[in-house]
């Protein structure tokens, strides 16, 4: 496995032609789940994003420090607080051979912003006042108000660039097909069974991808994926479950890498349901204090991750770290939590933790939390339900006490933190309190460039978030990538920002 | 003519049954919490996005209208389109049919080849006390061990020690016959355990019942050879209940052995319907349940037909 420091990207690109392989080579990726839809601008699930990343590209991407790096756009410039100019890479083509044009970029961003598309990424792009082509490869974007996270938002796969000409003339249906400028193109698809992807012959990185074909069997069962790795049927796969490391520890040719991400497990706490004990802020605060994030890390993740913060720890920011929730010794936190429950007049609140059955890790987190909250007086029951039911209960009906899930941290602290403003996020409007001061501070930070002033603002925001205890960060979410080192050389980023574990799939080399 | 008159009311009952199934599956799918918009957009579903998705897939129409449109299309052979892939679901069912059929046939073959001889053997008590006890044990185990337990144990064992078998996935027989058997035998074995118990117990009970009949005593008194008594009198007369359970079991297998297909990632009907249900992909589940129900009632019709062939008294009164 090669750990990829993107500082060397330019050198790699220069050497790319040397890497062209003469023989036919195939990679086999054991994918844990099928996509939930073909439309890259719409689907909000990691299972879909992972496949889109093989076929589509974004204007920008990220480097090892989660800073912005060139994608389809080879350069970009912010000429005023609201004006951006991006220049498309020369030679960038869709897999049908047509060059990517500024019209494709403008059309794609307009499509995301169009309410009829129902793209959840629309708010992250901010209020785009106008877009126009600037020459053959330039695009000028004017925002209605400053939005510091506009560029990082372009680096998420949901902001992929589609072939708008084909979409408009009806030869490409984004809800049923995939046609992008990424390293691979779809050759065949058997729903819930497998994908066959072939090298995009028009990919702008000459000599890449290193594999000619990418076979993708869908193998949801973890044991079946382990068996497929052991007998060499697949070259690489990923696991949610950290136990994979232990289970594969003695398998000679199999390596397991834990990749740090900006994502973290979280609790959504229902502050708006009057029937829930968490309607009362003191009870929410007590729960937040009583949580034992270290125990979650130790017992669920075997110490492979760490307690995480609303501003993800992977960004290296100090914001949130000195809050009592994190800095105070646990026995003192428990004492304080009990005091808060007494103040609330409810020393043993009965609460239900709603969990999706799709992710086995969530159930384990639930069991640890059940015990740690019990030490403060909470009586926690676990309610594990199918995914669709969980989504409706939590995000549509608001019919729950608290629930476990995880949050994508993306590539800039200013992006994930915005979700604490329910007017911006909308998806948490049924359980998240709208705190005007917090929303204002989030609006302010959204317009700030990275630096000391923004860091101070983030610290202020952390205090308000902690006070509301309405949406809680638990522990970092690592991605566990397992691969056969006798069959493939993989390239991983040190850290990943948008569930982009296979960011360097073009550089995966079959042996 | 006798057969036609015998089968006609059953055919009418089959049509009414399928109509009832279509209404039930259509309504129940829409009554369970969560919809495709939730799955597609994840937590990001907003009222506006939900409405946009509903409009896109025609889910904003009155439910009765949605049902009638679906039924109308169904009568013209249009089973609908998957919301995930926008492809006709019938194409996917046709593609998966050989997988489920193969799994069902192997499981049925195992169930019959083990269950029938053991059932006859223990029924006529030729294996002695120990043999009968063993048959009982197999029957009890098969009936009481759920397929997800046996399947999970097999997956664990064979994912650690391959022992020739492959866990998960599917290789078409035409592409690699050995690879096909390597992947299909474990799920078939998991499925067949219940079938073995079912066939064994039914056969044993039927044989025991027939053994007490007067014509068996008469055959013994006539000095017929035991082999002939078993073949000509016992097996033929014990066949009807066995045919009933075997056809019912085969119908169940054809309907998609959901748990086993999901556990072993076998891309048959069951896995497709299961994922369709998780994704709230209505067209898949509606078509899948209806096809399974059709297979089930058709096989029951076949059983009725076989009764009439095996025993001329059946249907004579009709």
From TrEMBL, chain A:
Belongs to the bacterial solute-binding protein 5 family. CDD domains: PBP2_NikA_DppA_OppA_like. It comes from the Bacteria. This is ABC transporter substrate-binding protein. One of its GO terms (biological process) is peptide transport. InterPro entries: Peptide/Ni-bd (IPR030678), SBP_5 (IPR039424), SBP_5_dom (IPR000914). One of its GO terms (molecular function) is peptide transmembrane transporter activity. One of its GO terms (cellular component) is ATP-binding cassette (ABC) transporter complex. Residues 70-421 form the Solute-binding protein family domain. PANTHER family: PERIPLASMIC BINDING COMPONENT OF ABC TRANSPORTER, PERIPLASMIC OLIGOPEPTIDE-BINDING PROTEIN-RELATED. The lineage of its organism: Bacteria, Pseudomonadati, Pseudomonadota, Alphaproteobacteria, Rhodobacterales. Residues 1-22 form the signal peptide. Keywords: Signal, Transport. Its main location: periplasm. It holds the Pfam family SBP_bac_5. It comes from Pelagivirga sediminicola.
From TrEMBL, chain B:
CDD domains: TM_PBP2. GO terms for cellular component: plasma membrane. Keywords: Cell membrane, Membrane, Transmembrane, Transmembrane helix, Transport. The keyword tRNA processing does not apply. It is a multi-pass membrane protein. Belongs to the binding-protein-dependent transport system permease family. This is ABC transporter permease.
């Amino acid at each position: 496995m090669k750990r990829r420091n993107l500082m060397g990207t330019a050198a790699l690109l220069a050497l790319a032609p040397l890497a062209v392989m003469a023989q036919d080579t195939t990679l086999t990726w054991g994918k844990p789940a099928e996509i939930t839809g073909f439309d890259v601008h719409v689907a909000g699930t990691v299972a879909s994003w992972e496949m889109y990343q093989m076929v589509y590209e974004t204007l920008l991407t990220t480097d090892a420090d989660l800073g912005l790096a060139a994608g389809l756009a080879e350069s970009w410039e912010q000429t005023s607080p609201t004006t951006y100019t991006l220049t498309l890479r020369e030679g960038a083509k869709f897999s049908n051979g047509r060059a990517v044009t500024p019209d494709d970029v403008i059309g794609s961003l307009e499509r995301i912003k169009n309410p009829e598309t129902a793209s959840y990424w629309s708010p992250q792009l901010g209020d785009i006042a106008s877009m126009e082509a600037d020459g053959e490869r330039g695009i000028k974007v004017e925002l209605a108000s400053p939005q510091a996270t506009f560029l990082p938002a372009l680096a998420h796969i949901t902001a992929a660039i589609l072939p708008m000409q084909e979409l408009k003339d009806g030869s490409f249906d984004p809800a049923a097909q995939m046609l992008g400028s990424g390293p691979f193109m779809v050759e065949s698809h058997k729903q819930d069974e497998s994908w066959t992807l072939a090298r995009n012959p028009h990919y702008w990185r000459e000599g890449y991808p290193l594999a000619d074909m990418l076979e993708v069997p869908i193998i949801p069962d973890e044991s079946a994926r382990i068996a497929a790795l052991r007998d060499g049927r697949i070259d690489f796969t990923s696991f949610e479950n950290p136990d994979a490391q232990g289970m594969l520890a003695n398998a000679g040719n199999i390596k397991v890498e834990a990749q740090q991400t900006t994502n973290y497990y979280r609790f959504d706490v229902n502050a708006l349901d009057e029937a829930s004990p968490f309607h009362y802020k003191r009870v929410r605060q007590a729960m937040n204090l009583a949580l034992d994030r270290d125990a979650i890390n130790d017992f669920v993740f075997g110490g492979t991750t760490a307690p995480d913060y609303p501003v993800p720890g992977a960004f290296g920011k100090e914001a949130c770290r000195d809050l009592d929730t994190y800095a105070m010794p646990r026995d003192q936190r428990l004492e304080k939590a009990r005091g808060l429950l007494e103040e609330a007049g409810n020393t043993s609140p009965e609460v239900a933790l709603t969990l999706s059955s799709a992710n086995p890790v969530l159930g384990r987190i639930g069991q640890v939390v059940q015990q740690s909250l019990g030490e403060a007086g909470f009586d926690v029951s676990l309610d594990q339900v199918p995914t669709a039911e969980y989504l409706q209960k939590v995000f549509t009906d608001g019919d729950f006490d608290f629930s476990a899930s995880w949050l994508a941290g993306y590539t800039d602290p200013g992006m994930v933190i915005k979700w604490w403003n329910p007017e911006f996020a909308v998806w948490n409007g049924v359980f998240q309190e709208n705190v005007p001061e917090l929303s204002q501070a989030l609006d302010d930070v959204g317009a700030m460039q990275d630096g000391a002033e923004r860091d101070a603002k983030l610290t202020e925001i952390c205090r308000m978030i902690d006070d509301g205890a309405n949406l809680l960060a638990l522990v970092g979410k690592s991605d566990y990538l397992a691969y056969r080192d006798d069959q493939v050389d993989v390239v991983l980023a040190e850290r990943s920002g948008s569930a982009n574990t296979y960011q360097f799939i073009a550089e995966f080399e079959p042996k | 003519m006798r057969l036609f008159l015998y089968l006609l009311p059953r055919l009418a009952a089959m049509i009414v049954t399928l109509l009832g199934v279509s209404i039930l599956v259509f309504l129940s799918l829409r009554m369970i919490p969560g919809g495709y918009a939730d799955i597609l957009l994840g937590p990001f579903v907003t009222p506006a996005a939900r409405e946009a998705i509903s409009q896109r897939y025609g889910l904003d129409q009155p439910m009765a209208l949605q049902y009638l449109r679906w039924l109308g299309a169904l009568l013209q052979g249009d089973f609908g389109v998957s919301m995930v892939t926008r492809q006709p679901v019938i194409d996917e069912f046709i593609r998966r049919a050989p997988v489920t059929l193969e799994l069902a046939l192997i499981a049925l073959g195992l169930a019959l080849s083990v269950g029938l001889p053991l059932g006859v053997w223990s029924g006529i008590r030729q294996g002695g006390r120990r043999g009968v006890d063993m048959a009982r044990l197999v029957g009890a185990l098969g009936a009481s061990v759920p397929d997800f337990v046996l399947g999970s144990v097999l997956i664990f064992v064979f994912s650690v020690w391959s022992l020739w078998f492959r866990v998960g996935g599917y290789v078409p027989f035409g592409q690699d016959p050995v690879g096909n058997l390597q992947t299909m035998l474990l799920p078939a074995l998991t499925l067949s355990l219940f079938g073995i118990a079912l066939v064994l117990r039914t056969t044993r009970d039927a044989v025991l019942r027939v053994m007490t009949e007067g014509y068996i005593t008469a055959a013994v008194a006539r000095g017929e050879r035991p082999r002939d008594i078993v073949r000509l009198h016992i097996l033929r007369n014990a066949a009807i209940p066995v045919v009933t359970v075997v056809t019912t079991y085969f119908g169940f297998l054809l309907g998609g052995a959901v748990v086993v297909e999901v556990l072993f990632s076998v891309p048959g009907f069951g896995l497709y319907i299961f994922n369709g249900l998780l994704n709230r992909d209505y067209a898949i589940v509606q078509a899948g349940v209806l096809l399974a129900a059709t297979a089930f009632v058709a096989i029951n019709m076949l059983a009725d037909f076989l009764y009439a062939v095996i025993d001329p008294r059946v249907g004579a009164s009709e």
